[in-house]
């Protein structure tokens, strides 16, 4: 059935019922008012509050030719939960502002919510409100509110000269997945599935962000724009430079095998991995590595330099050149 | 200069500078991190937290033929501040998610921010974060976070049989302004300016919302969808009906004079007035009227009825029919 036939309030009722049935919001004892009033309302607990917003626009950030509605729902919430994770916070509430064309199919929109509910359940996030409006193409803007239970947060601006630079997981997998989708590349089924998933179904590092805080790390960012661009964000905000040994960058073997010499470029320039890129004392990072479940790899150092300048060298100390420097909208 | 020439990060820097220069964010001693990190962060104070989001899409909610960029900036924040006001809360922080076409003019976007900064300053709201992405048309999604200092809130669901129904200000002025803009109607200059302003430059009732709370009112909504539709929202959420005496509805004389017999229809069905529509004990409302600066008009009663059913009668008790029942997106 078309959304236009169901009507705005009919669609809202349907989506509210999905959220109610998923019992997402009753899981939060602090939530006072979820969907259905002018604002969401919850009991504050005197902790540091975090808020982030991100938009996905059809034709710019996704195409329905290669993404299912459920994947889209998952990702639209995942990229915001990742921002909370990169602050060392815990995601709590989400507001979903949906813009839909007049002829949108109701079944697609419930699919979108199915994906959102799946990740919301995994991370115990209440979908507490939102807004539906009309637009020529689908656009999903999600706001996620979170908090830091110990009031400690991971900032971009706390990197110091002498810090070690490290990253969770692998770099470039999502960019490889995007290439596979965009160019219709063929690899082994397992490789294709894994890399597509890295792009379509990112898993935010919430638990890992909390572990960083507990191990005394104070600087982090999530790799949404790409390793190089995001490290530059840290360096600019902290007034420092960095030296990265490209041979140390953790690249999944599937990406190395499938993309050969292009793999490093994907790892440096490709965004949307949603890993945590962070800096800190080498001993603290060593301690963290013993405690954390995912791979953590040291890739370089924070150095005194022109703020935001990144030196890329190989294992022998020779300069490495790269073309892609991260996602830009304009 | 085109935004595409300035670049995404160039535009972000420019807008951040505007916000910094306006000293909006330094006015909030609770704000820990404004723009420039993965999330905004502020010190919670253990109060009830409020969050709302709303989107304005070019071609659906506004046309640049009749709206200036500054008006657009004002309104995009105003409609969200109004949601906080309708809960009896105080707006604190805003996140702005902007989607812009590739060929957007930088001067227009700074105009948009000028309007946002103007209203943010008036209501002491910090613009604490946001996101810029590309889209085929302009779309502005604003999230506003607020709090209730005494943890009391105005809900849609608290109306009781026997409550009196009242409204602040006038109904139908914004709809009249929209008609003037859309159809190019000509009235006296003063009338035209006033009604256009009601539509383009709404003034949220924040102080009035707080006064409602202080006078013991517990039910309110802001008239964004239209008096009739919004009263229906209250009645549905509260499981009650309402009887409205249409002759009591406060309609600005300019609307009465300019639109004659159509004036009532605009007042009942036209949205975007952003007045507070509320219910409560008649004596409490009488007490409020002595304390509040804006007009407050009693227009009817909450009655036992099919939930959401609104009876319209004239001063003689005769039924009144209406065609428009409020704004719908689909």
What is the number of helical segments of chain A per DSSP (H or I, 4+ residues)?
A: 11
Tell me the number of structural domains of chain A. Answer: 2
Number of strands of chain A: 12
Based on CA inertia axes, which overall geometry of chain A fits? globular
Helix-and-strand structural type of chain A? alpha+beta
- What is the fold named in CATH at topology level of the largest domain in chain A? Phosphoribosyl-aminoimidazole Synthetase, Chain A, domain 2
Order of helices and strands of chain A: HHEEEHEHEEEHHHEHEHHEHEE
The CATH homologous superfamily of the largest domain in chain A is named: PurM-like C-terminal domain
| % residues in beta strands of chain A | 15-25%
- Largest sheet strand order of chain A: 8-10-7-11-9-12
Give the helix level of chain A as a range of percent.
25-40%
Distance between the termini of chain A: 37 Å
Contiguous uncertain segments of 5+ residues of chain A: none
Question: Biggest interface, which chains?
Answer: A-B, 74 and 74 residues
pLDDT averaged residue by residue of chain A: 93
Largest sheet of chain A: 6 strands, mixed
Give the second-level CATH assignment, the architecture of the largest domain in chain A. Alpha-Beta Complex
Describe the fold and architecture.
The structure is a homodimer of 330-residue chains. With 330 residues, chain A is α+β, with helices and mostly antiparallel strands. The first copy, chain A, has two domains: 3-148, 2-Layer Sandwich (60s Ribosomal Protein L30, Chain: A); 164-313, Phosphoribosyl-aminoimidazole Synthetase, Chain A, domain 2 (Alpha-Beta Complex). Helices cover 36% and strands 24% of the residues of chain A. Chain A has helices spanning 3-6, 8-21, 69-85, 106-122, 173-183, 189-200, 206-214, 227-238, 253-259, 263-269, 282-291, and strands at residues 31-33, 40-43, 48-57, 90-100, 126-134, 139-148, 164-168, 219-222, 241-245, 276-280, 296-303, 310-313. In chain A, the strands form three sheets. The first copy, chain A, has a six-stranded mixed sheet, with helices on both faces. Chain A has a four-stranded mixed sheet with strand order 3-6-4-5. Chain A has a two-stranded antiparallel sheet with strand order 1-2. In chain A, α3 (69-85) runs parallel beside α4. The first copy, chain A, is globular, with a radius of gyration of 20 Å. Chains A and B meet through α1, α2, β2, β3 and β4 of A and α1, α2, β2, β3 and β4 of B.
């Amino acid at each position: 059935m078309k959304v236009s036939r169901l009507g705005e309030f009919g669609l809202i009722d349907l989506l509210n019922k999905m959220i109610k049935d998923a019992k997402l919001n009753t899981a939060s004892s602090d939530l006072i008012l979820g969907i259905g009033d002018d604002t969401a309302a919850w009991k504050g607990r005197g902790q540091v509050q975090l808020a982030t917003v991100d938009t996905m626009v059809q034709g710019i950030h996704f195409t329905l030719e290669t993404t299912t509605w459920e994947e889209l729902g998952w990702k639209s919430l995942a990229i915001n939960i990742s921002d909370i994770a990169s602050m060392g916070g815990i995601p709590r509430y989400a507001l979903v502002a949906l813009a839909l064309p007049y002829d949108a199919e109701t079944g697609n929109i419930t699919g979108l919510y199915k994906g959102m509910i799946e990740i919301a359940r995994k991370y115990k996030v209440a979908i507490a409100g939102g807004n539906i409006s009309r637009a020529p193409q689908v656009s999903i803007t999600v706001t996620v509110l979170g908090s830091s239970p110990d009031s400690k947060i991971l900032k971009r601006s706390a990197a110091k000269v002498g810090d070690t630079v490290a990253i969770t997981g692998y770099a470039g997998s999502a960019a490889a997945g995007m290439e596979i989708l965009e160019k219709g590349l063929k690899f082994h089924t397992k490789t294709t599935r894994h890399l597509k998933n890295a792009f379509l179904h990112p898993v935010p590092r919430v638990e890992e962000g909390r572990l960083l805080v507990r191990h005394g790390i104070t600087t982090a960012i999530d790799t949404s724009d790409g390793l190089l661009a995001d490290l530059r964000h840290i360096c600019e905000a902290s007034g420092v430079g960095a030296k990265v040994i490209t041979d140390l960058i953790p690249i999944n073997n599937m990406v190395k095998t499938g993309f050969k010499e292009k793999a490093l470029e994907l790892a440096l320039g490709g965004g949307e991995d949603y890993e945590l890129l962070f800096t800190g004392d080498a001993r603290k990072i060593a301690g963290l590595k013993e405690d954390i479940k995912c791979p953590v790899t040291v890739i370089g150092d924070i150095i005194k330099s022109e703020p935001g300048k990144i030196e890329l060298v190989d294992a022998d100390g020779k300069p490495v050149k790269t073309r892609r420097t991260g996602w830009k909208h304009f």
